[in-house]
Description:
By secondary structure, the protein is an alpha/beta fold. It has helices at residues 4-18, 34-46, 65-73, 88-93, 100-112, 130-142, 160-164, 185-200, 203-209, 212-215, 217-231; strands spanning 22-24, 53-58, 76-84, 116-123, 147-152, 169-172, 177-180.
Amino acid sequence: EKSPERIIEEIMLLVKTRKIKSFRFTDDTFTLNTKRVIKICQLIIQNNLSYLKWTCLSRVDNINEEMLAWLKKAGCARIYFGIESGSKKILQILNKNTDVESSLKSLQMVKKYGIQTSGFFMLGIPGETIQDIDLSIKYAIEAKLDFIAIGNFTPYPGTPIFDKFKSDIDFSIFPYKLQFKNINNDNYVKYEKYFYKKFYYRFAYILDKIKFVYTKPMDFVSYFASFIFYSLGLKSNALNHVQ
């Protein structure tokens, strides 16, 4: 694990040599240690780097008000959360030790500090029903997420979740193959689009994002066009840029 001081040195080097205006912490345990996060934020401020816009990853149960206050001061613009599902049943299947109600409150708390939130969800979990997907959509809306990204459930060899579903998985190394038996990929695509449309095609969401027309017109046009293409089946994944 790099020290806060080393992280700041690297950011300053990138500012000097690459003239960066933004960056992202890709460590999915970034917010695990509150003291370390606060120290990084303090050093960002002390070194006059808070003008940079940056993002980080977090679990829904690893944030608190003290940390959020420092993240905002230091220029954090967006936090990406690995939510996976808004269904208690699915979270239990995935062995996720997160509580739907408390995690929802945590995400709503982030909005108080003016930090954007993006949620990662998964589809294609064995035992998942349309009711579970609807619960995830409801969760995303109630959490007031700014963006969502959806991925196909893929249990990797060597993990407890892979062992849990081993009998239902078609797996080989040579040739490489990793997929669930009797799972129709067309259904995944259908439900992925269903999720995206239910979340993004809302009047309240569109109204809230209209400000992009004035603040970042080209970004808005690019985002809107990409999503329309995706909805029409002209792109395989039009929302990569918000991931």
